[in-house]
Amino acid sequence: MSAATAAASGVKTATAGPATIRNALPLMGRVAIDRSRQAEVRARFPGIVRAVPVNLGDQVRRGQTLATVEGNDSMRSYAVIAPLDGVVLARNTNVGYVAGEAPLF
Predict the structure, then answer these.
(1) Facing residues of 80 across strands?
(2) Under a CB-based contact definition with an 8 Å cutoff, are residues 41 and 105 in contact?
(3) Tens of pLDDT, residues 58-80
(4) Could you tell me which of 49, 50, 79 has the C-alpha nearest to residue 64?
(5) DSSP classification of residue 85
(6) What does pTM read for this prediction?
(7) Percent helix, strand and coil across the chain, each rounded to 5?
């Protein structure tokens, strides 16, 4: 369409830029977790939790340290790592807690 035709038809143009879109569409549904992509993360050995660098809602990558635990028997610290990429949905530990058989994340 030529500029003259557009002007005669009442078509206006403007430079596009950032804007907030406020369209909301109410829908009914259910959000469900894919159980094959969920993991309960536990400490390998019992001990004292020395560090917890992640929080509820944080995105994590596979292999990322979720907590550091000092083993009761060896007194050495080891990392509790994320087994897969995802989001922390539960954090059941804090610094000073005792890691045992219960899931930490």
Answers:
(1) 67
(2) yes
(3) 999 999 999 999 999 999 999 99
(4) 79
(5) S
(6) 0.71
(7) 10, 20, 70
